[in-house]
Specification:
Distance between the termini: 17 Å
Shape: elongated
Order of helices and strands: HEEEHEHEHEEEEEHEEHEHEHHEH
CATH architecture of the largest domain: 3-Layer(aba) Sandwich
Strand order of the largest sheet: 12-11-10-13-14-15
Largest sheet: 6 strands, parallel
CATH topology of the largest domain: Rossmann fold
Mean pLDDT: 86
CATH class of the largest domain: Alpha Beta
Oligomer: single chain
Length: 329
């Protein structure tokens, strides 16, 4: 997983604030096994100070640091490929094996294009970010249709280009400010989600109660819950235990493009809610979008544990994953 753009921009500002030349390292190719995905980034300053990693601090980062310092001496961007471990390491199950290709870019001029990309993402747009690798790096962002494949890849054209697809951050809409909601907001923000919290009681969604929420709504749910502009990266999680709010929120979510819909309820109560919605003429196929009981079975029953189980299921569904254990390829 690569870092969210807000994190990268903060790292860029920190490197600039030190007043020392630095290089940006981007992971652009992987052969074999790697702990990081394409697009992972690392920063190396001329005095050896580093931020981030392209191999989770394994043996590769030391090699990359040396190469980055060399690139800073020449002030020339370049691609660099190196091996992580040997074949017998893979047989022993060690993670850092295979080959990585990175792009070393001294004093990168990325701030403007990253800020522009972040602005587009805040408008729920999907953006392609192109980086030319030769002869001089250039960064260009472009809006793209939703049906373009979601892969990050190096696209060989007349000039080598690294293409990244940036998706809008997941937007988690939580109905009900109960004891599950606070850890759910906190954990969601940790993984880069936007968060909206609703409760009919204004005091329950105060800034003091939910300082990390992006949006706090209260009052009449039918007036304030607007899901018309939702997209497949929107998640609606109902934890209110208020029957009227549950039904309205689920009806609105089923009529939207939300990619994840869940209600916190027992098996019995969840089935009752689904039966009622079916009587309202929602099809069985439509009702299969609702996850109830919400969350994966992690064996946790504390508010934070339940919030984690919901966030885990939500993340898997929004990314089209099955939430099964990682297996070696």
């Amino acid at each position: 997983m690569r870092e969210p753009l807000p994190t990268l921009l903060k790292q860029l500002e920190r490197m600039h604030s030190r007043g020392i030349p630095f290089a940006l390292i981007t992971l652009i190719g992987v052969e074999g096994m790697s702990p990081r995905k394409l697009g992972a980034r690392m920063w190396v300053a001329q005095d050896g100070f580093t931020l981030g990693t392209v191999s989770f601090g394994s043996c590769g980062d030391g090699v990359i640091r040396e190469q980055a310092l060399g690139a800073l001496e020449t002030n020339l961007a370049r691609r660099f490929t190196f091996a992580l471990g040997e074949d017998e390491d893979s047989e022993l199950g060690l993670v850092c094996t295979g080959h990585l290709e990175v792009f070393l870019e001294p004093n990168p001029q990325v701030k403007a294009v990253w800020q522009s990309t972040l602005e587009r993402l805040s408008l729920r747009q999907t953006v392609n970010l192109y980086t030319t690798l030769e002869p001089q790096p250039q960064h260009v962002s472009q809006d793209i249709p939703q049906d373009v494949p979601q892969d990050i890849f190096v696209e060989p054209t007349g000039v080598p280009v690294f293409l990244e697809r940036w998706l809008p951050p997941p937007h988690l809409v939580i109905i009900g400010a109960g004891n599950i909601a606070q850890p759910l907001v906190r954990l969601a923000r940790e993984v880069g989600c936007l968060t909206t919290i609703f409760d009919s009681r204004p005091e329950k969604v105060s800034l003091e109660a939910f300082p990390q929420a992006d949006f706090r709504l209260s009052g009449d749910l039918e007036r304030v819950l607007l899901l018309e502009q939702s997209d497949p990266f929107t998640a609606v999680v109902v934890v209110s235990h208020n029957y009227a709010d549950e039904i309205f929120a689920l009806k609105a979510a089923l009529s939207s493009f939300a990619g994840y819909i869940a209600v916190l309820a027992s098996h019995k109560r969840g089935r009752a809610i689904l039966r009622f919605l079916e009587e309202l003429e929602f099809s069985k196929a439509s009702l299969e979008r609702i996850h109830t009981p919400a969350g994966l079975d992690l064996g946790l029953d504390t508010p934070a544990g339940i919030a984690l189980s919901i966030l885990a299921e939500m993340t898997a569904v929004l990314h089209g994953k099955t939430a099964v254990p990682f297996i070696s390829k």
